[in-house]
Structure formats: structure tokens, C-alpha cells
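OP here, attaching both records as promised.
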Amino acid sequence: MRRCVKCKGESVINLKSTNAAFCQEHFIEYFLRQVARAIKKYKMLAEGQQVLVAVSGGKDSMALWDALLSLGYRADGLHVDLGIGEYSEGSRLICERFAANRGARLYVLSLMDTYGSNMQEIVRRTRRVSCSVCGTVKRYLMNLVVQQKGYRVVATGHNLDDETAALLGNLFGWQEGYLARQYPHLPSTHARLPARVKPLVRLGEMETELYCRLKGIEFLADDCPLARGATSLAYKELINSLEEKMPGTKQRFLFGFWDRGRRSFIDTPVELKGCSLCGQPTTADTCLFCRLMQKAGIDPLTQPQVQEM
């Protein structure tokens, strides 16, 4: 194992992509510096700004929440309890314990408490791809909490691996709209919609997991049961094999696209109007959330039950 490039002490990680090794102290310093660098480069947050962090209990969102608090941001958490048995029970407990230990604010929204159904049941009834349904429901509910509590920015734990896999998938399918919109900072396009930021885009899954372990941050190591077979996993496997042979591939691919390639794709502005049922911004007469919930036999106008920890 190489020695730490900062202090020549025993290293805990060797990053081939940057040809650098770090000890525990200097890796944590490096991690926070990468988060701060992403925030500054992509103009994600103002100094000390209040931000709502989407927390699942996994390593990425927990590392992000801790990093933002460590950097001095007023970072509150929002956890959507999907009601998927022991997986969701463990995820929720991790978020609650972190909030209690750090003295941070946490909002919890339970699907079972609000709608009387869990995500597995909603997916089964709608007969749609599970990740698509879950993403739609969570984004919608997050927007409601944002409006109720007055946040203007939402941060998610998407990391370097997530973004390179998404980019590869969008290129394979020539999803020009998605390619135009794939960026670490998406400003608000409507008074009811928050800006969305991804401060972990300079760090991969290996780094976020090590950060959690070194700082003693509890996280759920299990993958979501509904994500099994997701195409993103195949794209990650492919890009990881390239990274192993050619270190730095992920950074060159993703940052090169954002710096040069993305400008080749045009994001055509669309007119947002109020959903005919719930009034939330949408491009259709009835928003996708309302259509999905109706198909699942659930009243989409049910008011979410949000607990503040």
C-alpha cells in the first residue's frame, strides 16, 4: 500500500484515477474538499444556505448529509419510508439515529401511514417499472414537503458512478432530452419546484462508503429489493470494467460531457401547467403521480403525513 501523499503516513485508500493515496485524516479532508469543489464549480449552494437532503439510509445520502453539515450548510433531511419490510425499517432507523446524533432536523413521510399501501403494492398495481414508479412518487412527495416547509434547494446523493451510468444509458438510447438536462445543478423551472443539486458527483461509491466507515456513519449496505435487475447496474458494471483498465475513465467521460458534449443537445423548454387533479406543475393535463395513484386505486389527493424529528 502506498503512503499518504500529504503526510507519508499509512494510507487507507489508493485512488488510481488521481494517482494519490491518503491516510484517514487526509482522505476525509479530500472528500470534503471534493464536495466543496463541486458545489462551487456548479454554483449549487450559497455559503451557509439551507438545503433539504433526500436521505434513504444508504451510504451515499448519509455521506452527503454529513458532508454538508460538516461544511457548514443548514442541511435538513427528508426520508420517504417506502414500507418495504425490514429494508425500509432499517433505512428509517438509520436516518433517525443520524439526525438525533447530529442534532439535525429530519422529516419522515410514510407511504403506509399516508396511503395505506407500500411501494411494492403500488408497483404491482400499476404494472410499471419499479424504479420509475418509485422515482415519480418520491419526487412528487418531496416537492410537496419543499412547498410546505419553504425550501428552495434539494440535494440528492447521486455520485460519480450513478452519473456515468446514467450518461452511458442515455447515450446508448440517444435520449436527447435527458442528455440536455443531465447536469449536477438543475435550477428551478417553476415557483413550486426546487432547484436540484448533486454535490457528490466528483466522488464514487468506493469513496462514499469509506467516508462513512472512517467517520463512523451508520448506513444500510443492502440494495433496494425493487432495484434488482435495473439496467443502471449493467451500465455500472461496464463502466467499472473500463475504469479498472483505464483509471480516470469515469471523470474524463462525465466531466468532458458536461464541459463540452452537453452543449450539443438542446433542452426544449416546455410549458408547465397545473395538474387537473392536484394542481402541481406538469406538462400533461393530469400529472404522472396522479395517474399512477389512480391506477393503483389510491386517492392522489390524500394529504401526506409528515413527521418532524
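Record two, same layout:
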Amino acid sequence: MKVLPFVVAAAAVLLSACASTGNPADSANAGNAAIVSGNGASTAGGGGSSLNPAQPLPQVDAAGAEAAAYAGVNGKSVFFDFDQSAIKDEYKGVVEAHAAYLGKYKGHVLVQGNTDVRGSREYNLALGQRRAESVKQSLEVLGVKPDQVEAVSFGMEKPQASGNTDGDHAQNRRADFVYQ
């Protein structure tokens, strides 16, 4: 029976350690990034609360890390100039992000080349294939294994924009990444 008061006291200490102070200053500084030093201390831009060095930082499991990495590349396409298959400098970062994802998580991606509606069906299928192959080659140069990437063309068959303006055409001149 002498153990019971000790267990109750220990539970009370543990519960109080988890309680929030509700300090409005902490709420105001919640948007500031915390910088953790080597000893576990934390500083925030506006003098917010510090981390408890005895409490470990939350860990992300491998599936969570992969999901976060996928979210960073999902929906990112490479867009091309009219009648071109060369990757523009502004989209090289997109290709590099996909290469890093494929290098780390060993997935498989289908690169789909697309065109706008101008030109014949045959010409657009060939141009879409050149665009997909251009992206595939860039991924391989960045270290992605050739068996991880497949390049196909949809030509003008899968438009993102259905209009006929220059902006619509620009949205349709792209290579999409579809992970399998």
C-alpha cells in the first residue's frame, strides 16, 4: 500500500509536465522558425518558448518521409517553348527534384510528353516523344537508372487547357511525371 501514493504522485508530475501554459506570447511567435542548437536549446525570432532538451524531437517514419518527398514533386511538370524539346533553365530544378526523389525512393516514373493542338497528329506525337525523351535523358544524367523511367507521348491528346489562346497552348506544351 505504500507504493500507491508514489504512483499517484508520479502520474501527477507526468501530467503536469505535459500541460500547456497558454502563454499568448508563445502563440504570437508560433509562426517563427525555431533554430535548434547542438545542446538542444531553441531560439525563435521573437523570443518564443524553448524546446525541452530531455524531450526528443518527433521522428518521421520512412513512409512519412517518402510521402512528404512525393508531395514535393507531385504535380510538377516541365513546360516547353513552341516546337521545342529542350528543357528550359527555369524547369531544370523540377527535373532535379524528381531525380532526387527517384534516387532516394527507387520508384518508377512514366514521363508523358504533350503538345498543343497546332500541327498534325503525327508531328505532335513525335514532338511529345522528343520532350519525354529529353526529360528522361536529363533524369538519367542526374543518376536515375534507365529502368526507372519510361518515356511516352500523348501528343495533343491530353490537354490541360482546352482554350485556343497562347496561354492555353503554353499549358499544353509539357512533360508530366506519373509515378507507378
